[in-house]
Each structure stands twice: as C-alpha cells, then as structure tokens.
Amino acid sequence: MSLQGRDKKHLWHPLTQHKSHPNHIAITKAKGAVLYDENDNEYIDGISSWYTCVYGHCNAYIIDKVCAQMETLDHVVFTGFTHKPAIELSEKLIEILPDNQEKLFFSDNGSTAVDVAIKMALQYHFNHDEKRTKIIALENGFHGDTFGAMSVSGLSVYNGPFEEFFIDVSRIPVPNAENLDEVKALFTQLITEHEVAAFIYEPLVQGAAAMQMHKAEHINEILKIANEHNVVTIADEVMTGFGKTGKNFASEYIETKPDIICLSKALSAGMVAMAITSCSQKIYDAFYADDMKKGFFHGHTYSGNPIACSAAIAGIELLQSDEIQANLKRIEASHKVFDEDIKKHPKVGNTRQQGQIYALDLNIEMERYGNLRDKLFNSFMNKGVCLRPLGNTIYILAPYITTDVQLQKIYTAIWETIEEL
Amino acid sequence: MSLQGRDKKHLWHPLTQHKSHPNHIAITKAKGAVLYDENDNEYIDGISSWYTCVYGHCNAYIIDKVCAQMETLDHVVFTGFTHKPAIELSEKLIEILPDNQEKLFFSDNGSTAVDVAIKMALQYHFNHDEKRTKIIALENGFHGDTFGAMSVSGLSVYNGPFEEFFIDVSRIPVPNAENLDEVKALFTQLITEHEVAAFIYEPLVQGAAAMQMHKAEHINEILKIANEHNVVTIADEVMTGFGKTGKNFASEYIETKPDIICLSKALSAGMVAMAITSCSQKIYDAFYADDMKKGFFHGHTYSGNPIACSAAIAGIELLQSDEIQANLKRIEASHKVFDEDIKKHPKVGNTRQQGQIYALDLNIEMERYGNLRDKLFNSFMNKGVCLRPLGNTIYILAPYITTDVQLQKIYTAIWETIEEL
Questions:
Q1: What residue spans in chain A does CATH classification 3.40.640.10 cover?
Q2: Does domain A72-319 have CATH number 3.40.640.10?
Q3: Residues B202-229: pLDDT tens digits?
Q4: Probe site for chain A from B1, B37, B67, B87 (most A CB atoms < 10 A)
Q5: SS3 per residue for chain B
Q6: How much is the ipTM here?
C-alpha cells in the first residue's frame, strides 16, 4: 500500500477536517530547499516547512553537530543539572537578542513559550503584591493552541468549545498611521480602568493573520505607554525570529524593547521541537527571593534538551555566517523585483514585504479553509512549489539557501496560478 | 570558567528558586545508565532523567536510526503532508496500545498532550450538541504546567497567580478498598448534578504525588461509571507508559479502557521532545464531518517531527526485544528483594512497587522543596547515584539496561543515606 494509503489508518493530522481532506502527500526525503514525495515529484519548500528549515533541509553542518551531541549526551534533567549545549546556546542567543534580554527559560513549542510568558507576567505582578490579571493583545494576533496561548489569540478559527475557559483578554486594533491616536487612547483607557498585567504582540508581522504588517514606530507608541504603566510587554517572535524580517529579530526595528520574547520554529533550525522564553533582568529579579514560593514552578521534561540545543547553536552559527547574510540580502532583493511586476496584475491587491517575508492578496474573497484556497494550493503543488495560501493571501518564506533558479520557479508558479484563476 | 559558573549567567531553570538553589551540576556526557559531570564524577541515573532514557543514554541502536532519518528527511509540515516515520510509528504504537485506541494526534510534551486531550473531550460533546464543561480529576494528580494541564493537576505546588484562570475542575479522592463506595457515590453525584465532559487520571501510579499507587479494580469502578454516562475518560500515561509498570501501558491492567491516552517522556526514548494523544474511533468520529468547523483546529509546528518519530520507533523496537523484556523482569525482581530488607528499617514507612517503579516513604516529615529533601538528594549524589526524592519519598525508576552491580550501588546509597539520617 502507498504511504498515503497507510497514513489514513491511524493518523489524525493537525488543523485538518479529515472528511474533506483525506489525502496527505507523503514526503520521503528533503534536501536544501526541495521536498520529494513518494511518487518522485519535487517541490520547492516555499514556506520553509512552517518557517523552520530556514538553513535548508538535511543541512550537513547541522546534522554533524547534532549527531556528535547525540553520541555525547542525549538528555538530562534540567533542574539541578545543566550542560554545555544549553550554556553555549544561552551565550550565543543572548549575544544576538535585544540588549535588555538576560535570561532564557526553555520549553518545547511556541504555544508553551507563550503560556510561559503569560505565567511569568502574571506572577511578576503577583510577586510584587499587585493584583493584575488582564492581558491585552492585538486583534487578529495568533499565539498558539494551548489554553493560555489560545486565549490571547484573536485569530483562532473555531474556538466555540473552549471560549468560556479563556483567560481575561482585551484586544486593541493593530496601530497604523490612521488609527494611532485612537488605539493609544483605547490602550491607555484599558490600563487605567483595569488591572492590566501584560501586552502581547507579534512585532512587525502577524503571521497567521496572513502576514499582515505594521510599522515599528506605531507599535512603539503602544510599547511606550505599556512601559510607563509597568505593563509587561511580550513580543511573540516565534515566526519572526532568526532573520525572517531582515534583522535577527523583528524587535530590533522597534525602539522600545520587550520585557519578554517568545522563540521557537527556526530556533532549532528545522530539526526538532524546542522553544525559549527570554526575559529582562527586571522580570527574573521578581522571582529571585528567599521565599521558595516566589520561584517559577513551571517545567517540561525535555527542557533544555541537549540535542535540540546543539541544533540551535548550529543554526545561529549559520545565521551569522557571511554566506547566509549574503543570501538574505539576495532573496530580499529578488522578492522586490518580483513584486514590482506582480503588483500591477489586475487580480492582485495589496502586496507587502518585510525582509524574507513576501505576501500578496488576491482581489478575490476566499474562506480560510475553503475550496478556492485549496485550488490555489493544488495549483502550486502541481507546478512543483509548496506554498500554503492563507485565505486569499499568497506568501513566500523560502529557506535562506533557496537559489535564484528556485526563486524563479516559485514566482512562475504564482504568475501562472494567478493567470489560470 | 567552569560550566557551573557559566550556567548562572543566562539560564533560568525549571522548577527552581535560583536564590536558594544557585548551583547546577554540569553533566558533560552520558552512557547507558551513567551520567558524568565536569569534575569526572559518575552518577547512576536512578530516575532515567525524569523517566525518559529508559533504554539507556546514547544508545547506539537509537542513534543510528535517528542519524539516518536526519540525513533523509528532517522535518515537513504535518498538515496536508505525511511521512514514513509517522506512519510506521502509528502502526507500531497502535499495535501495542490497548485495543480500543485507533488514532494518534501529535504534540510536543506531556502538558500539550493533556491540553489536547481536554480540548478533544470538550469538543467531542460540543460536536454532539451537548454542553458539557466540567472535568473531574483525582486529588493529587499531576498533568503538566500549561493552563489546561495545570487546571486538572491537583498537586501543582504554587498556583497562586494562576488559579483564577483555571478551567472548571472537581476532584475526587483516589479510590481504595476503604473509600470505594464513597468515591463512587461522589463521582456519580458530580456527574448527575453537573455537565461533566471528562475524567482524567494517572492509571495505577500518580508519579508527581510521590509515586502513590492504587489498584486496577478500584479505578476500574470509576471508569465504568464514567462510561455509563458518556463521560470521556483520559488516561495520562506520560509517566507510566512504555514498560514502567511491568506492562507496556498501565491501562492494560485495568479492565475498562480509556477513550483517550496521553503519551510522552519515554515515547521518544529519551532523545527529543515529543508527545502523542491517542484516542478511540468514537472520539475521532465526532470530529469527522462535512462541517469544517467540527474538525480539530489544534496544531504545533513540529507535530509528527520525523526525527522524533524515528527515535520513538527505535524505542518501541527495543521495548519489544527479548533483551529488554528479560531486563524488565530482572529489575522488577531485584527491587522486590531490596524491598524485603529495607521495609524492616525503623526509619522506613510505606514501601510500594509497580513493575520498574519502586518507592519508599521515610518516617520523617519533609517539605517537598525543603532542606531535608535537599540533604537526601546531595547524599545520594555524593554516593554516585542520581535520585530525586519527592519530599520524604525516595523512589527508583532506573533505565531498563541498569546492571545488577549498578542496582546494588543504588540500593547501597539508599541504605547508607537512611542510616546517616
């Protein structure tokens, strides 16, 4: 039986209605920017497997480091114990994170990184004997699927069964040139009238909201107000981290730095699950006390896993290499040239770019999980390109090692698909 | 600078008050049942690094499989795509899970496996147009640290800042010979008076509650009542799974099978983070519909990660090998012999064993995170054995490849430590 056939027996895929979407394409190998399926078809991985494999699939440099780590130390409890991969990663990561970030707390995915950040923010105030319980989030933000992360997400698609269990969240519109004064007033009002613990936001690019982008100077105005009122600021850089926006982190573009940053996805270089919640000394100090109870009693078994840390170290080394830095500039420039042409197409509406992230909206209404969206996806796959449209938004977030020829293949697939619509 | 010194700069460890516990022992390598620190000290890993590395550290059989997988396919989106490691793992795992388990849903750690299980249970009723929102859990159960998992945990140590965000949970005592009728009556009353969606329990052994054990026939009575009222039953086998209790899963001892099982820890053989929430066809079918909304819109980026799946496949192959099966019997018998003697010690109170899990309580009151508990931990470490007492409970859950000589070293460390108290 084909892999696709065997898949149907026991696997329940994420974010999938299996009745309307019974078939899953069986990928058998991957190398660089290319995925290969069981029928020997090739696809350019135009979204880096959900923004993870940015240094390319099955990268020899990363594999060598990870295999060496597996031979030396696979795993050890991270309470009472430590190890070199976690220490080296902490040193390398703190070096490239915004200057105010001082401490790293490990977990296993973006959702738990956000749950950790929310718990840190709530307990920060609790430890200061202040009762603050409300979280403010951006409209259409997405932060994950655990109960805490789901609560702060404005975009979760079908939350009916869970809504009554959400933590206390208020939302503000994403600030822009037109609404800035209004949003500032609303934010200030919320802080004045409620006990606001934290503000969570995806800096510069809201990924799941179809790569919606906002300006650094506008979000900065909100962060300044948060700081004035000691509202803990949480930057969710799970998607934007590690070079995606043109700098290592989107927060670098924004003058006011966050108290807490959530990292995952490209953090572990597309190898295995890992997440980190980093924070400033101010946050950490609120937990450092003679009173045991003031500590942060959160933990996951594979916290700080040495194998995942070794992948992350290799990833940062690659990110800092001249080769990848040159590639980042090349791909960013290439997308700009593509944009100059495609944005004139009558079926294309808004287009936008931030570093490696390029998005265009079609002038056609589409449901997020509807037939038209599926038709787009299938059209790209038939042309040998893996792109996953978000409703009527087509976006590219290709591995940093994608060649010019491969980029052209992506652009051509988009042109042809739009023409055929 | 020593690794221990460098550790202090940027790492925030889980479940740690850094002011009272500033020093973390730096482990530099591991092999089989032994951990080595940066000062060349050796420690038998008497708790399998939190019940993960049960086939031994840096196991060549597992490493070979994982490295081969890394060379072939590191990662791919698991929505719309599938791959051989996930398929093979699903076939192997379904073969050894209780017969009623049919589908597997991936996530990354025990907490998310529980959040997924709770969301499945809530949406199961929602999709059947039934409003059921209360969860019933056992007193002193522990299920993880994300908001959902924390809510159902009765044991979470310091929940002050978070309690008001918990989902709606009622607790029942762990059933035993004395209280069985009472607990059954309470459980029935809760189900009759409230809209109960699910019952979650750690089958046979409550790990974080200091390896408290209960009998299969008593918990079975509760499960029977749950089934009669269509209350979804969730077995949290994150700790008990994969041979710990003497069978592959603790649920095998209990006549009534759970609707949902949470798996992690030893699932991925001590290599990298991964979790699975398995379920029966009945649960899956409630989500399988023409209506997109009835699908389960939960997902984590590294869901079904091929590298983690390859480790899990190797782990199951080892678990089923004659060698490991013989080891399981040998270690279980060895603990029994040790127990015969130590239980007579005047400082020892209750002792208990379930397969590989051995626990003894000291006749001394201790705080869970107090000085006396730390003194015990340090005494074991000084004798070359890593055991992490839970309050006044000393327990052993050694790798399945621990030799008789290594077991004797563990037993001697316990004898000597108790004598010195």
A1: 72-319
A2: yes
A3: 999 999 999 999 999 999 999 999 999 9
A4: B87
A5: CCHHHHHHHHECCCCECCCCCCCCEEEEEEEECEEEECCCCEEEECCHHHHCCCCCECCHHHHHHHHHHHHHCCCCCCCCEECHHHHHHHHHHHHHCCCCEEEEEEECCHHHHHHHHHHHHHHHHHHCCCCCCEEEEECCCCCCCCHHHHHHCCCCCCCCCCHHHCCCEEEECCCCCCCHHHHHHHHHHHHHHCCEEEEEECCCEECCCCCEECCHHHHHHHHHHHHHCCCEEEEECCCCCCCCCCCCCHHHHCCCCCCEEEECHHHHCCCCCCEEEEEEHHHHHCCCCCCHHHCECCCCCCCCCHHHHHHHHHHHHHHCCHHHHHHHHHHHHHHHHHHHHHCCCCCEEEEEEECCEEEEEECCCCCCCCHHHHHHHHHHHHCCEECCCECCEEEECCCCCCCHHHHHHHHHHHHHHHHHC
A6: 0.98
